[in-house]
Design a protein that fits this description.
single chain, 585 residues, alpha/beta, Aspartate Aminotransferase, domain 1, Aspartate Aminotransferase, domain 2, 3 domains, 7-stranded mixed sheet, 4-stranded mixed sheet, 23 helices, 17 strands, 13% strand, elongated
């Protein structure tokens, strides 16, 4: 019986490992053959190594081999074989595999196949029940303002569909500022802000916004819709907590999904429900270490309903339960407050109570892009962590210049009252319009849902009338509300929503035809919405370019338009009888 002993000896002066095989019972003939094989391999390897020295860079390879494997040529040969195998594997043509399965076509066959090929459409065809929405879009000829030319109309149309509430689109100084900046810097920044996309006008605008809203610093974004989607994920991550109003706009919905934070929803503007949720969460949060970041998220002036957030009570609750406050003031800045500084000025509350304020420059400021204002560390964090700021193109220079000029126009105040002249005029027109419409709709199946301070007046069918038609209270699904996670499936087409929206469009059309005044309706895309949406609304957007006479003319025609559209629609069957009219619109 034989046994083998393997002994490994490692020296301290070299990196060489010598393996000695000791076998006291191995025959002399086998041992002699093994020695001859080793010597032969060593000679051949030395010959190959000498040849390598003539190859460019060969000396480097030789130094590596000699220093690492000086006394172990077998290991060097094995490693060399592995290296050759790897090169052969990675650089061999994949086309050689299954070459026998390849079919070679003639030019004629290729042409025939190309002629037969029909590409899939990029988007699906519009259903005949939805095609009316495209046909109902008004086409403005020329510039957009308070009075416009519409395709199909010879007369000038009063425009109450625009969200340019201060009518700064038609301001001469605004136009001059835009023209001058375009001549100086062109129409694009051509780069992200952190590289070569920031110009002097961008820095000035950030200073103007911070000074105007009373904060330490401001940061601007090239697109207003992505502002929330970049700011919220920059501060909220998986495991953080946000308590959110259930009627927030689509941009915040998408931002919350991207952040992956835990979400608790409170009923729209319901402070009692908000306090209940915060009270229930308190004992759970107090036991968690480390402390989770937590925010209350709401809007200033809600785009879906037209009412304003109850900021005094929200501030009281956020201080009591130690939350930070995030407010989207896209519609309220330039509208609320004596100088248009938004929700905080409207209630007389310090802007410091709001940790993060975002807004749009595409509404009252007559420009484009979005912004965020607050303390310096919060703004600085966005410059290196906010996706839209780091990776997207900067705001066009002329848009920045226009916004700075718009702020100057807003700050032209009455010396006696200290209030902004154009903001005061907007408030007076809004109050006049709200009171006039409310008075003339007393016996109408429509009601106003927006607050008296909102220049975007929302009208919807009353609860009693919608109940007669068996219309649902909300459209869409509630998965995002109940689970905190968005539904994996898009909302499907809803016949009720489609027909109800069509009824509103008929009111818009009648008003346009008979008063030459253009109003609009809410145009949410159900597929895109993650939260349940309220019933569609008529929208009357008051702006400084119209007069009280224009509003009076609208108020005289609107009740008639509503009556004509609704008088023959009194139950569900009559409601769906509009389907043929929708198809033939």
């Amino acid at each position: 019986m034989s046994s083998a002993i393997f002994t490994t000896t490692t020296t301290t002066t070299t990196t060489t490992t010598t393996t000695t095989i000791v076998n006291s019972f191995t025959s002399p003939a086998i041992s002699q053959s093994w020695d001859i094989l080793q010597d032969t391999l060593s000679e051949n390897l030395l010959f190959i190594l000498n040849k390598i020295s003539y190859i460019p860079g060969g000396q480097i390879i030789l130094r590596y081999i000699k220093s690492s494997y000086q006394n172990d040529p077998i290991r060097s040969l094995f490693e060399y074989c592995l290296f050759i195998f790897a090169l052969t594997y990675f650089f061999s043509s994949k086309k050689k595999e299954n070459k026998s399965e390849f079919v070679k076509f003639s030019k004629k066959e290729i042409d025939e196949l190309c002629a037969e090929w029909e590409p899939e459409p990029i988007i699906s065809e519009i259903d005949q029940l939805e095609n009316w929405k495209l046909k109902a879009i008004p086409e403005i000829i020329g510039h957009n303002g308070a009075h416009v030319k519409l395709n199909g109309f010879d007369e000038t149309i009063v425009n109450l569909a625009s969200q340019d509430f201060l009518n700064l689109n038609e301001n001469k100084d605004i136009k001059t500022a835009a023209k001058t900046e375009i001549e100086l810097a062109g129409v694009g920044a051509c780069g992200p802000p952190n590289f070569y996309g920031t110009q002097d006008v961008h820095v000035r605008l950030e200073e103007d916004l911070a000074n105007y809203l009373g904060t330490e610093q401001a940061i601007i974004y090239g697109q207003d819709f992505v502002t929330a989607g970049s700011v919220i994920p920059a501060f909220l991550k998986r495991g953080d907590l946000c308590v959110v109003d259930r009627n927030i706009n689509l941009a915040i919905q998408k931002a919350l999904i991207v952040s992956r934070a835990d979400i608790e929803w409170f009923d729209h503007n319901d402070m009692v429900h908000l306090e209940q949720i915060l009270t229930q969460l308190k004992p759970v949060l107090s036991k968690q270490k480390p402390i989770r970041r937590r925010f209350i998220i709401t809007e200033g002036l809600f785009s879906n309903t037209g009412d304003i957030a109850n900021l005094p009570q929200i501030v009281e609750l956020k201080n009591k339960f130690k939350y930070r406050l995030f407010v989207d003031e896209s519609l309220s800045i330039g509208v609320l407050g004596p100088t248009g500084k938004g929700l905080t000025e409207h209630y007389g509350i310090s802007r410091d109570e709001v940790s993060i304020t975002i807004g749009s420059m595409a509404n009252s400021l007559a420009s484009s892009g979005g912004f965020c204002v607050g303390v310096e560390p919060m703004i600085h964090h966005q410059r290196i962590q906010s996706n839209a700021y780091v990776f997207s193109a900067s705001l066009p220079p002329y848009s920045a210049k226009v916004t700075s000029q718009a702020i100057k126009e807003i700050l032209k105040t009455n010396t006696q009252t200290g209030k902004s002249k154009i903001i005061t005029n907007l408030h007076q027109l809004t109050t006049f319009a709200y009171d006039s419409i409310l008075k003339n709709l007393k016996n109408s199946p429509m009601t106003i849902t927006s607050t008296p301070q909102s220049p975007m007046i929302h009208l919807t069918f009353s609860e009693s009338y919608r109940s007669k038609l068996n219309l649902p209270l909300l459209y869409g699904n509630s998965i995002f509300v109940t689970t905190g996670k968005p539904s994996k499936r898009l909302n499907s087409f809803d016949d009720y929503l489609n027909v109800e929206s069509f009824m509103l469009q008929k009111i818009v059309d009648y008003t346009l035809t008979n008063s030459k005044i253009l109003i609009t309706r809410s145009k949410l895309i159900l597929e895109h919405e993650n939260l349940p949406i309220v019933a569609p609304h008529l929208l009357i957007n008051i702006n400084n370019g119209v007069s009280e006479n224009d509003i009076t003319k609208l108020v005289e025609v609107l009740p008639t338009a509503i009556e004509i559209v609704t008088k023959n629609i009194n139950d569900e069957d009559e409601f769906f009888s509009l389907t043929d009219e929708i198809i033939n619109y």
